[in-house]
Design a protein that fits this description.
The structure is a homodimer.
Chain A lengths: L2 H4 L7 E8 L5 E8 H10 L3 E4 L4 E4 L8 E8 L6 E7 L18 E4 L2 E4 L7 H5 L4
Parallel strand pairs in A: 1-6
Antiparallel strand pairs in A: 1-2, 3-4, 5-6, 7-8
């Protein structure tokens, strides 16, 4: 059976994907893939997601240059969640978040309040300016 | 605003949750929470999920004893994904997966085939026998 057929795609034909930096172990992003996105990720060795908001394939870094090199692709026990071990390119340290932060998970619950606890490493305006 | 109100619950009233071991950095599990599950997780300091298959709250470890102590709760940039930093109790090393493995993400794509690359640490039959 094809490896893509073994994935249990949800009712929208998607699977949740966790991106974890291989070297730091940091979970930097969460996104979705459809079948074509996972096939392209395997083919390119770079993360290609399905953007639900834009309803199109999204080669991570296509605008920002912050591509994710994929070292490993893992599947969970229920075959319905994917974990990528990646290197986040384009900046040092890596910027995975569109806010210019290292990780998308920069809000921490502290005494009942979500606090931003990670710095903006680069102004998002300058990250995305190159697309204009 | 209440911290729970800031979470963007999906059309089913759920949010995806990633459980990462604080000390090892390993991503060990992926599950879902509804509002009540997240409230209970905050209250207990232990992970409480929403089981979609059983359509009920699921205090992780309630049957296996493999509870997840929650050290940190993070929210992503879109307010629609939660990351838990946990300690997996009940066995050393921690067993998060119902198959008796450390992590649910034990299948790795190798030359187009999903290979199981993590050992079963404990027979699931013996993990869940205590509930009988």
């Amino acid at each position: 059976m094809n490896s893509l057929d073994q994935v249990k795609w949800d009712r929208d034909g998607l699977v949740p994907v966790i991106a974890q930096e291989r070297d730091s172990g940091d979970v930097v992003m969460f996104a979705w893939m459809n079948r074509e996105a996972l096939a392209l990720t395997i083919e390119k060795g770079q993360a290609v997601y399905w953007s639900r908001s834009r309803a199109r394939l999204w080669h991570k870094g296509e605008e920002s240059g912050h591509v994710q090199q994929v070292h490993e692709i893992r599947l969970d026990c229920d075959n319905d969640v994917v974990l990528l071990k990646i290197t986040q390119h384009g900046h040092q340290p890596g910027i995975a978040c569109h806010t210019g932060r290292h990780s998308c998970f920069y809000q921490r619950l502290e005494n009942g309040v979500w606090q931003s606890v990670e710095p903006v490493l680069k102004d998002p305006a300058s990250i995305y300016a190159q697309q204009a």
